[in-house]
Amino acid sequence: MKTFALTQANDSAEAIATAAKSTTAQQGADIRFIGGGTTLIDLMKLNVETPKTLIDINRLPLDKIEALPDGGLTIGAVVRNSDLAHHPLVRKNYNVLSEAILSGASVQLRNMATTAGNLLQRTRCMYFRDTAMPCNKREPGSGCAAITGVNRSLAILGTSEHCIATNPSDMNVAMAALEAVIHVRGAKGERSIPISDFHVLPANTPQRETVLEPGDLITHVTLPPPAPGNRSLYLKLRDRASYEFALASAAVVITTANGKITRARIALGGVGTKPWRSTEAEDELTDQPATEGVFRKAADAALRGAKPQSQNGFKVELAKRCLVHALKLVTQPA
Amino acid sequence: MSLRVNGKKYDLRIDPRTTLLDCLREHLHLTGSKKGCDHGQCGACTVHISGRRVNSCLCFAAMHEGEEITTIEGIGQPGNLHPMQAAFVETDAYQCGYCTPGQIMSAVALSKEPCGQDDAEVKEFMSGNICRCGAYPNIVAAVQMVRQNAKQPKAG
């Protein structure tokens, strides 16, 4: 691991002013905030990330989960995944988020990992993690070893000829279906970013994963009030029963009335280069009866743009079946 | 800086790169916590920070000043075993033993977590601790034995 200076942030303004001096907030940033460290320290050990300065934000007062007057929820940046997943209001109003978080990683990692950190979780693409290999995300212009290499676990949606790395987060998929808003304080003030605009597609700059700029500190995430009468769940398919990244997953938030779907929010995981909200699937479901035929049409719509690689063609059908099964489970009578 | 480990305060001068695991093992000579993968994947390094289990290989020691750190050495010793340690012995929940301190630290923490009663739940909650010898069935038995005994205190 390369040497670095570790500083403790005592207030947000000071932390932001320091981080604003970084050349980038993306891959290779020389100044980074550190929360749980579960991704960053791992990548620093691999020399994939080599920050010169770390700003420890764990003691900033960003650790609260609170109900909002409109019925929504605000989640502080350093709220641990365990605390978020088990919070009574999350369990009651945002079941899909609780299930998604608890399906990821291990208890130890969830006790460490933060909300903001999970939004910024890095891909598990083995070529990104191996500095001996080409990778456009890690080293722009070096090429993508995955496209011609081992790509079974990689993305089929949102890819480019430069990068097919999967966004590995489960939490982000639920956050996408819940239409979470990410609140950022930066050198130029505060702004609120819908999660669908927060992560960016790799295109020809896969080193850029989010819209964050140097100095931007995620302070909290808000969830809109739960849709009245909705039911939600997260279904994750993977090679092992536990402690494994998704091959395909689905976050579904559905409201039905008299056997008809009146509102649908759909996001897929394990298949996209970013948490994959599918408005195409939502459109196929809305105002339709909750039947398997309709679910299948929605799944076909969600995967219409899929571009399989040499080893992950199975993911197209797997993701469809995952979504269909999730919709069946969430609409079956209680 | 200083660290509080197993109720004792240690004054230290360390490189910021020092993980909590390396600090415990190499500086404090508390070698019970093991280094398996060193990437948060195997759980052999599991310790408790402020009562919660974490992978000490993915923590920088310098970020945990003032917090109460508990290692396998802090929960029991030969002749005065923690009930979970005794249960691991009784159910033969290990073979080579390398993952065992981490397994036990997870199992002790599990008893205070919202883990359901059945074996499947225990397996899910213990999935962050890998045992390459495959002692899993007996590990589950040890965890369940301690939980069972805690639920039904022996008469007298």
What does this structure look like?
The complex is a heterodimer of chains A (334) and B (156). Chain A is an alpha+beta fold and 334 residues long. Chain A has a domain at 231-331: Enolase-like, domain 1. Chain A has twelve helices and twelve strands. The model of chain A has no long low-confidence stretch (mean pLDDT 98). Chain B has two domains: 2-75, Ubiquitin-like (UB roll), CATH 3.10.20; 83-151, [2Fe-2S]-binding domain (DNA polymerase, domain 1, Orthogonal Bundle). Chain B is built from six helices and five strands. At the A-B interface, helix 2 and helix 6 of A face strand 4, helix 4 and helix 5 of B.
Q: Structural class of the secondary structure composition of chain B?
A: alpha+beta
Helix fraction bin of chain B: 25-40%
Q: In CATH's first tier, which class of the domain at 231-331 in chain A applies?
A: Alpha Beta
Q: Compute the number of helices of chain A.
A: 12
Question: What is the radius of gyration of chain B computed over CA atoms, rounded to a whole number of angstroms?
Answer: 16 Å
Low-confidence stretches of chain A: none
CATH topology of the largest domain in chain B: the name is Ubiquitin-like (UB roll)
Order of strands side by side in the largest beta sheet of chain B?
Answer: 2-1-5-3-4
Oligomer, anyone? Answer: heterodimer
Strand order of the largest sheet of chain A: 4-5-8-6-7
Radius of gyration of chain A: 19 Å
Protein structure class of chain A: alpha+beta
Order of helices and strands of chain A: EHEHEEEHHHHHHEEHEEEEEHHH
Summarize the helix and strand pattern of chain B as letters: EEHEEEHHHHH
As a percent range, the share of strand residues of chain A is 15-25%
Any idea what the CATH architecture of the domain at 231-331 in chain A is?
2-Layer Sandwich
Weakly predicted, low-confidence segments of chain B? none
What integer is the average pLDDT of chain A? 98
Taken as a percent bin, the fraction of beta residues of chain B is: 5-15%
